[in-house]
Amino acid sequence: MANNQNHHQVKAKKHLGQHFLNDETVAEKIADTLALKNYKNVLEIGPGMGVLTKYLLKKDVTTYVVEIDTESVEYLQANYLNLAPRIIEKDFLKYDLNEVFKGESFGIIGNFPYNISTQIVFKTLEMRDQIPEFSGMFQKEVAQRICSKEGSKVYGILSVLTQAFYHAEYLFTVPPNVFNPPPKVDSGVLRLTRKEDYSLPCNEKLFFRTVKTAFQQRRKTLRNSLKTFDLSDNLKANPIFGKRPEQLNVQAFIELTQLIEQDV
Fold first, then answer.
1. Any residues with CB less than 8 A from the CB of 47 and at least 6 apart, and which?
2. pLDDT category, 17, cuts 50, 70, 90?
3. Which of 119, 168, 236, 252 lies 20 to 30 angstroms, CA to CA, from 6?
4. What was the pLDDT predicted at 13?
5. Predicted local distance difference test score (pLDDT) of residue 1
6. DSSP letter (8 states) at residue 183
7. Is the Cα torsion angle 17, 22, 23, 28 positive or negative in sign?
8. pLDDT for the residue 264
9. The pTM of the whole model exceeds 0.85
């Protein structure tokens, strides 16, 4: 079984950019990161050969998995018979999850393929009304970026947009040697817990646009990076426009958006 599993893993990772977790202790530790409060369903993204899945199936929650690789799906169907009806053979980024969840809440977990991990976070933000909790493994520097605070060199668009709606915690680091094949970098596990009040007291589209535009020229002051907004000279005289984007926390970006909203 082990050799067969490794053969499947190596084939699958070639077109998914995925490194498969081999360490049972780490898998169980990741499965335990979800609090599983106030929702009944969990979706695992990219389960591969089910090393994390087996620990999720022991919990008092209904586990679904979404997997794009046909060989991995066949392996899961053969080896996890009780999971078979809840294996979704789709591309997570393109699939309408409400075909399964019908508007209900669900948690997300996974050892995410590095090449789509930030896109997974952005889709989670789009579906935040249904996703109270999210945890998983990323390339370490991506996990750190998501959880970083203002003033950090890695603080950016992903940090602000995620932390506008979720509390972000960096939980632990995972070394390369527990994967097949081993990646060239460390991995990091994080948890996102949705805020009790996650509605923004400003125009949401304008907030997203302001954050993204500001960080596109992160070394410039906001007065320069937000030139495309055609703001009044009176507004640009506000001291906040003399700051660079990495100096603003989430609340400051909300206040900046409110100022722009009133000026337009």
1. 53, 65, 67, 72, 76, 110
2. low
3. 119
4. 43
5. 44
6. P
7. positive
8. 64
9. yes
Cβ(257)–Cβ(210) below 8 Å:
yes
CB-based contacts of 123, cutoff 8 Å, min separation 6: 92, 93
- Count of other CB atoms within 10 angstroms of residue 83: 20
Q: What are the boundaries of each domain within the chain?
A: 2-194, 204-263
Domain 204-263 top-level CATH class? mainly alpha
Contact 95, 69 (CB under 8 A): no
Q: Are 43 and 83 in contact (CB under 8 A)?
A: no
Here the tokens at position 48 are: 């591969």
The separation between CA 53 and the C-alpha centre of its own chain, rounded to angstroms, equals 18
Looking up tokens 């996102």 gives 192
Instruction: Give residue for tokens 């106030």.
Output: 38
Q: Is 171 helix (H, G, I), strand (E, B) or coil?
A: strand
Rounded CA gap, 65 and 67, in Å?
6
| Amino acid at site 258 | Q
**Residue ranges in the chain assigned as alpha helix (H):** 2-16, 24-31, 53-56, 70-79, 98-101, 117-126, 140-147, 157-165, 204-216, 222-225, 233-236, 250-263
The answer to whether 147 and 175 are in contact (CB under 8 A) is no
Whose structure tokens read 């907004």?
A: 229
Strand 41-45 and strand 62-66: the pairing is: parallel
DSSP-assigned beta bridge partners for residue 43: 64, 108
CATH number of the domain at 2-194, out of 3.90.650.10, 3.40.50.150, 3.30.930.10, 3.40.640.10?
3.40.50.150
Residue recorded with tokens 């018979």: 81
